[in-house]
Specification:
Order of helices and strands: EHEHEEEHEEHHEHEHEEHEHEHEH
Helix content: 25-40%
Oligomer: single chain
Shape: globular
Structural class: alpha/beta
CATH architecture of the largest domain: 3-Layer(aba) Sandwich
Number of domains: 2
CATH topology of the largest domain: Rossmann fold
CATH superfamily of the largest domain: HAD superfamily/HAD-like
Number of strands: 14
CATH class of the largest domain: Alpha Beta
Radius of gyration: 18 Å
Strand order of the largest sheet: 5-4-3-2-1-12-13-14
């Protein structure tokens, strides 16, 4: 089947390790759009975290955000589909994990922002690479008392996200979550994403395809991390970045170059040459 949509992860795929969207990648995606192929981001980021990237890709109309929990129309930010953690489960997860050493992130459905402990946000470099830490500090809300924020917060969430400074607290989080009815994944070796059961990037991709009348077999999906696996498994043409995990590489039909060597652009160029 001809490819009608390209579903693209952001961190480790679309942008370099330094957080840069290269001109070569933008040009390749524009050429795909000019051929009538939908260009779509499928990211763990919330809307506010990805807004600068959206601005750099004006050919893009839709995006799947929050690891598959939401499909948005970028023309006005309208949420077309969403599947949230209930408020009860959100509170339950928070109190289960709040004492662990890590940067716990609250994805608010009230203001569309992400809320963190002020202490953690000021020291974001302790938890994630410098370019990501810079983005987090610019786009998230610092709460002097996150417990107080959660005590008054009602509205559910697209997911709960944790960055950890080392492996032991992540392993303890996994132990506490074992057997609970949530989908748990990771986008980096020292993070965790917790979503409602059945919500992942593949489910988000299928929601978007249903909106557009596209068969998932007509999708090229490109990713690098384990939270991209469901997206690649849902797509007719799964592509792994050169920097991808073993699980992503095993699921791929193509393996391209790394995100620091325009691997996404090279995969798009190959697609356009062959279709």
């Amino acid at each position: 089947m001809p490819i009608k949509l390209i579903s693209i992860d952001v961190d480790g795929t679309l942008i370099t390790s330094g957080g840069v969207l290269t001109e070569r990648t933008r040009d390749a995606l524009q050429r795909a759009a000019d051929r009538g192929i939908h260009v779509c981001l499928n990211t763990g980021r919330a809307f506010t975290e990805a807004s600068r990237i959206f601005e750099q890709l004006p050919m893009m109309r839709y995006a799947v955000i929050c690891t598959g929990a939401k499909v948005v129309d970028l023309t006005d930010g309208t949420v077309l589909d969403k599947r949230l953690i209930s408020d009860e489960d959100h509170q339950r997860l928070y109190h289960l994990l709040r004492d662990l050493d890590g940067m716990l992130q609250i994805f608010s459905e009230v203001d569309g922002r992400i809320h963190n402990r002020a202490w953690d946000l000021a020291r974001a470099d302790r938890f994630c690479r410098p370019s990501l830490a810079q983005m987090v500090r610019k786009t998230h809300i610092a709460e002097a008392d996150l417990d107080a924020f959660m005590a008054r917060y009602r509205g559910g969430a697209s997911k709960l996200h944790f960055f950890f400074p080392s492996r032991p607290p992540k392993d303890e989080a996994l132990r506490r979550l074992q057997g609970l009815p949530f989908f748990v994944s990771e986008s980096a070796p020292l993070d965790l994403e917790i979503m409602p059961q059945g919500v992942d990037k593949g489910a988000g991709l299928k929601m978007l395809c249903a909106r557009l009348g596209i068969d998932p077999a007509e999708v090229m999906a490109v990713g690098d991390s384990d939270n991209d696996l469901a997206m690649l498994q849902a797509a007719g043409l799964p592509v792994a970045m050169g920097n991808a995990t073993d699980a992503i590489r095993a699921a791929a039909k193509w393996i391209t170059d790394t995100n620091n060597c325009d691997g996404l652009a090279k995969a798009v160029d190959r697609l356009l040459e062959e279709c």
